[in-house]
């Protein structure tokens, strides 16, 4: 099991003394007795990711926020400050394996913000990122994955009509990403981004694939 420390990059960026963008980027820093070199490599990955996110905030979002703030002032419109928030959740951390996802929330002054999820699963002996096929799924089983997801969507739609788009059968295939997964103690969770297969109100749809002979009470779920 790896020990984790939360690191943060944050700032409130102003224009003419008015806050126009607030960003907070939380990311993990690992220590591990599996391999110090591997942990250092993985930590470098997240440090670079955090630097890229901060650069995006400062060089892309901030100028855009300033422009919107000036336009709002000139036209006597209300201006809502931009926000960028990145938080990670560790979902599995046993022996020399750790799995986590990061949700990056952006609010750019509209009716609501948008969240993009990214996930990684690491082998702390080698420092390598692992793939879904390393655990229980074979590339040839992808159609079986779709069948399970379709059956689950039918159940959810019966319970809450309109939870997914009508053409979900095509969308789950067209938007499937082999990297959009993370581990839990008793299985693998496959997820889709907002709007890919369901309306905004449905959040980020998740589908749980349990290992055989393993009981996990979390089940499949949808997060917002």
From TrEMBL:
<protein>
    <submittedName>
        <fullName>DUF3298 and DUF4163 domain-containing protein</fullName>
    </submittedName>
</protein>
<feature type="domain" description="DUF3298">
    <location>
        <begin position="134"/>
        <end position="212"/>
    </location>
</feature>
<dbReference type="InterPro" id="IPR037126">
    <property type="entry name" value="PdaC/RsiV-like_sf"/>
</dbReference>
<dbReference type="Pfam" id="PF11738">
    <property type="entry name" value="DUF3298"/>
</dbReference>
<dbReference type="InterPro" id="IPR025303">
    <property type="entry name" value="PdaC"/>
</dbReference>
<dbReference type="Pfam" id="PF13739">
    <property type="entry name" value="PdaC"/>
</dbReference>
<dbReference type="InterPro" id="IPR021729">
    <property type="entry name" value="DUF3298"/>
</dbReference>
<feature type="domain" description="Deacetylase PdaC">
    <location>
        <begin position="19"/>
        <end position="115"/>
    </location>
</feature>
């Amino acid at each position: 099991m790896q020990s984790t420390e939360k690191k943060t990059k944050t700032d409130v960026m102003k224009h003419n003394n008015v806050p126009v963008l607030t960003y907070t980027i939380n990311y993990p820093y690992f220590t591990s007795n599996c391999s110090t070199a591997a942990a250092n490599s993985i930590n470098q990955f997240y440090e670079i990711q955090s630097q890229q996110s901060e650069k995006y905030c400062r060089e892309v979002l901030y100028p855009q926020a300033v422009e919107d703030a000036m336009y709002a002032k000139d036209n006597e419109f209300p201006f809502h400050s931009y926000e960028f928030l990145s938080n990670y959740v560790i979902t599995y951390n046993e022996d020399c394996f750790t799995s986590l996802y990061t949700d990056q929330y952006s609010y750019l002054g509209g009716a609501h913000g948008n969240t993009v999820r990214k996930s990684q699963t690491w082998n702390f002996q080698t420092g390598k990122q692992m793939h879904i096929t390393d655990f229980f799924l074979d590339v040839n089983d992808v159609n079986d994955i779709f069948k399970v997801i379709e059956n689950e969507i039918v159940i959810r739609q019966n319970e809450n009509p309109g939870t997914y788009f009508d053409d979900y059968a095509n969308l789950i295939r067209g938007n499937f990403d082999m990297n959009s997964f993370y581990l839990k103690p008793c299985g693998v969770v496959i997820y889709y981004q907002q709007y890919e297969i369901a309306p905004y109100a449905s959040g980020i749809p998740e589908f749980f694939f349990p290992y055989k002979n393993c009981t996990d009470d979390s089940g499949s779920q949808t997060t917002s």
